[in-house]
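Field log, afternoon session.

UNIT: design team B
ACTIVITY: writing a sequence onto a fixed backbone
BACKBONE:
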C-alpha cells in the first residue's frame, strides 16, 4: 500500500508538471508511448518458482501503464494486448516476434518505446529493478530517470544502475526512437516474486513508469 501511494504521488506530481511545461511543439506533435509487454504467446519468458509466467506479469503491468497513460491524456500503442500469438504458423520464431515489435515502434512518428520484462537468475539472492537503454542520448536520459524513480519510490535498497543495453539485445538495437527495457525485478528472488505478482505493486510500477515518461517528455528535443 505504501509503495502504491508513493507511486501515485509521483504520478500526480508529474502530470501537473507536464501540463504546465507542455510546449506548443509537443502539443502539435504529441509523442506516442509504445508499450511492449515482453514475451507472450508461444514464449512465456522466465517461470517463477510459484509457476507465474513472466509474460503474464509483463502484460499485467503494461495494461496498467496503458490505462494510466489514457488517464493522463497520452497516446499509446501496445505491441500486444493479450497472450495470443501474432500468427498461427507453427514456424513463427522468437526472432520474427522481435522484428514485429521493432516494426511497430519504427512505423510510429515521435515514438518512445518502453519494453517491460522480469529478470531471472540461477540463485535466489539477486534482486532489484534495472533499466537498459538504447545507445542514443534520449534513451540514456529516459533510462536513468526511470531507474532513479524506481529506486526512490519503490526500491530504496536497490543499488543497481541504469546501463546501456548490449548490442545483442535486438529490440533496443533496431528501433529509431528513444527506447528502454525495464527489468522490473527478479522472479528467482522469493520476496520480489511475491511483490511482482501482486496487483497493487504492479500498479505502483506502472505509475512510476508513467510518471517518468511524463517527466521526460518536455526534455525530448533539448538533448
Amino acid at each position: 500500500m505504501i509503495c502504491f501511494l508513493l507511486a501515485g504521488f509521483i504520478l500526480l506530481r508529474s502530470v501537473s508538471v507536464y501540463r504546465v511545461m507542455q510546449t506548443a511543439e509537443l502539443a502539435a506533435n504529441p509523442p506516442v508511448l509504445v508499450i511492449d509487454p515482453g514475451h507472450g504467446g508461444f514464449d512465456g519468458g522466465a517461470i517463477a518458482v510459484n509457476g507465474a509466467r513472466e509474460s503474464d506479469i509483463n502484460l499485467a503491468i503494461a495494461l496498467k501503464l496503458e490505462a494510466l497513460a489514457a488517464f493522463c491524456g497520452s497516446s499509446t500503442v501496445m505491441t500486444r494486448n493479450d497472450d495470443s500469438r501474432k500468427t498461427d504458423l507453427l514456424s513463427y520464431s522468437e526472432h520474427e516476434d522481435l522484428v514485429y515489435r521493432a516494426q511497430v515502434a519504427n512505423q510510429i512518428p515521435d515514438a518512445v518505446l518502453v519494453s517491460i520484462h522480469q529478470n531471472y537468475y540461477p540463485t535466489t539472492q539477486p534482486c532489484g529493478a534495472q533499466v537498459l537503454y538504447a545507445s542514443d542520448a534520449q534513451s540514456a536520459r529516459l533510462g536513468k530517470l526511470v531507474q532513479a524513480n524506481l529506486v526512490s519510490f519503490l526500491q530504496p535498497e536497490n543499488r543497481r544502475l541504469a546501463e546501456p543495453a548490449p548490442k545483442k539485445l535486438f529490440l533496443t538495437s533496431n528501433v529509431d526512437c528513444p527506447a528502454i527495457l525495464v527489468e522490473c525485478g527478479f522472479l528467482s528472488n522469493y520476496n520480489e516474486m511475491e511483490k511482482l505478482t501482486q496487483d497493487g505493486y504492479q500498479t505502483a510500477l506502472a505509475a512510476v513508469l508513467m510518471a517518468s515518461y511524463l517527466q521526460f517528455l518536455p526534455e525530448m528535443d533539448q538533448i
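LOG NOTE: The first helix runs from residue 2 to 21.
NEXT ACTIVITY: expression trials, pending approval
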